[in-house]
Structures are given as structure tokens and as C-alpha cells.
Amino acid sequence: MLFYISLLALTALLVMLLYRYRAVLPIPLPERLRSFLSHPSANNYAPLATFADQAAAGMTSTTFDIEADNIREGDVRVGLDDQGTREVMEIMRRESVGFDQARLIRHNRYLAANGIDPSGMPLDAKAVTRL
């Protein structure tokens, strides 16, 4: 009985490790299985490496002008945060909103995840907000 439990645990661990590291394993998988295992938002996302790529993809606006602040200035940095860019593009696609509205939605979600309401006040009842 203990042998079968150990075998089941080892199999479960192997499956979890294969799922976790599926992107870096050089195992050839059929396309149907590869699309099943891939993350839903990863199918539509291609990394944007530079500010120019991000501006061309619509990641700029009058209030967040990448072109004026970074491209024309000759900024040599890589670009915006990759994870944040991915999240904003996913919000823009899913909710059919513009860049600024998607940034606001992402920011409010970040605040809510950290226990802060959209006005910037902590949601914790024990938080000291004035002396």
C-alpha cells in the first residue's frame, strides 16, 4: 500500500514539474497539446522589447507619452515593464478600453490586492491615517 502511495506522489510531482517548466523543456509536443497547456493570455502576446515597439502597439497616450519622453530623447533602456505591459494589453483587449483606462484598471487592481482603496486610503481598520 505504501508503495502505491509513494508511486502516486512521485507521479504527481513529476506532472507538476513538467507543467511548471513546460516552456523551457525541449520536449516536442503535438500542437493540440501545446495550445492546451499554454496560458490563455500567452497566445495573443508577443514581447515588446523597446519603447518604439510599445508605442507602435498603442502603449502611449497624451498623458503617458512614450514618444516624447523616451524615443525622441534617445533613451537606451529596454522599455516598459514586461509583465505590466502584458497585463495592460490584456485589459485593453478583454474590456475594449483605451490605454489610459487600462492603466487605471490595472493600478486599481494592484491597490485592491494590497488592501488600499482607489483613493489611496488603507482598507485596514487598524491603520492610522491621521494623528
Q: Helix and strand succession?
A: HHHHHH
Whole-number count of domains = 2
Overall 3D form: flat
What radius of gyration results from the CA coordinates? 22 Å
- Could you name the ranges where pLDDT drops below 50 across 5 or more consecutive residues? none
Would you tell me the overall average pLDDT?
76
* Gap from first CA to last CA: 63 Å
Report the portion of residues in β strands: under 5%
Decide which structural class fits the backbone. Answer: mainly alpha
- The total count of helices amounts to 6
* Proportion in helices: 40-55%
- Can you summarize the main beta sheet? none
Number of strands: 0
Q: What attributes does this structure have?
A:
mainly alpha, flat, 131 residues
Explain briefly what this protein structure is.
The protein has 131 residues and is mostly helical. The protein folds into 2 domains: 1-38; 39-131, no CATH class. It has 6 helices and no strands.
Task: Give an overview in words.
The structure is a single chain. By secondary structure, this protein is mostly helical. The protein folds into two domains: 1-38; 39-131, no CATH class. 51% of the residues lie in helices and 0% in strands. The protein is built from six helices and no strands. The protein has helices spanning 2-20, 31-37, 51-56, 66-71, 82-95, 99-113. The mean pLDDT is 76.
